[in-house]
Amino acid sequence: MSMIHVQDLTFAYPSSFDNIFENVNFQIDTDWKLGFIGRNGRGKTTFLHLLLGYYEYTGKIITSVQFNYFPYPVSNKNRNTHEILEEICPQAEDWQFLREIAYLNVDAEAIYRPFNTLSNGEQTKVLLAALFLNDGQFLLIDEPTNHLDTDARKIVSEYLRRKIGFILISHDRNFLDGCVDHILSINKANIEVQAGNYSTWKINFDRQQVHEEAANHRLQNDIKRLKQSSKRTAGWSNKVEASKNGTVNSGSKVDKGYVGHKAAKMMKRAKNLETRQQKALEDKAKLLKNVEKTEALKLSTITHHSSELVVLNDVSISYDSHSINKPTSFKVAHGDRIVLDGKNGSGKSSILKLILGEQIAYTGTITLSSGLIISYVQQDTSHLKGHLSEYIKDNEIDETLYKAILRKLDFDRIQFEKDIADYSGGQKKKLLIAKSLCEKAHLYIWDEPLNFIDIYSRIQIEELIRSFNPTMIIVEHDKAFQQTVATEIVYL
């Protein structure tokens, strides 16, 4: 066991005037299974890169361990998988590779195939297996679930639970609960470390928010009362001061000694009130710094004249004359939210594209209602680049509405001036979701919309769907999201 000490860490990218981290202090144990959470764009991946020594910073990061990073950069994916695993962990024996991938439900023959023939999920699993075979290294795991289907997420979560010594960035609540014993959270005002899984952290965080809200309400009332009292005291002081050079109402002369004594008491009371008011203001300033309030999102749907918008009967997708899924049937009526689930490569995204009108070979029948307007969120974000204003213009989006939605999804206004290519993965995904929310449609088709999206925004999107009940077909592997929004889950 050893410790990683972070002392007075301050960092900003050379092209930015804003610090990502400022005078940050915390320490973590290298035996912990540490879940790393926080809003998109707050610096989670940046912190991992600082541990790896990619950037210069002020302050100190003190540790005796060597760091390794997932995803491991595979330069040539045409190489044999076994060759890549030996590159990652040259001291490991074949039996060790085979043992680790067996824990992850990967067939032994996979390591003797070219790496590019493995599915994205298999690639994730074999790379993780090899990285964990490096003794004495502390693994930095950056969002491994984005290429994992629902079953694979459960398998990898169970695998990680048996390991020690890693930081895991993930926004999948069930996944975190299954494998971490501490949470490192980047909040609005600080970074905190807490024992327990995500659910334990969320309960404590919510309690703290409620406590601070209540304390803030009491302090606001106290400040209001002190201000009123201060005004009264100031009024009394003015009257006393005026009476020094005058007479009392009866016409008799004023006892100036008495007046001076009274004025001194008024002055002392005013000073005491001022001190108490300032203390209350300082206490209030300490509160509510980490409140993560999310504004409610809105959606304008259109009602279609048909009761059933989409009907699939025994649809099976084919590539190179090979069927990739068993015949699938389902119907989409008004208010239905169909979630397609299944292993990677089972045809989920292909069925979405088929409904959207792409030319894909299939058997069976698919029927769409006439005049159906569809809003689509695609899985890939690699095409997003350039200035936001250009993206808005090219897609004919209502700029005011679009930016208002992005603000609700935790975009700072400064982000509107940056190149989209510099956005985080979650911020890019939010661009696509915000575009869909601007579109009035009969049917919303979203393909893995939550990839890279932070937990707060996931909950915000869940609340939107429950409030407006749009008709949707969704491919998404986040189990908590599925359980919250789906009216039916179709397994391929």
Automatic annotation (TrEMBL):
Residues 4-213, 310-492 form the ABC transporter domain. It comes from the Bacteria. SUPFAM superfamilies: P-loop containing nucleoside triphosphate hydrolases. CDD domains: ABCF_EF-3. The keyword Transcription does not apply. Residues 263-290 form a coiled coil. PANTHER family: ABC TRANSPORTER ATP-BINDING SUBUNIT, DRUG RESISTANCE ABC TRANSPORTER,ATP-BINDING PROTEIN. This is Lincosamide and streptogramin A transport system ATP-binding/permease protein. It comes from Metabacillus malikii.
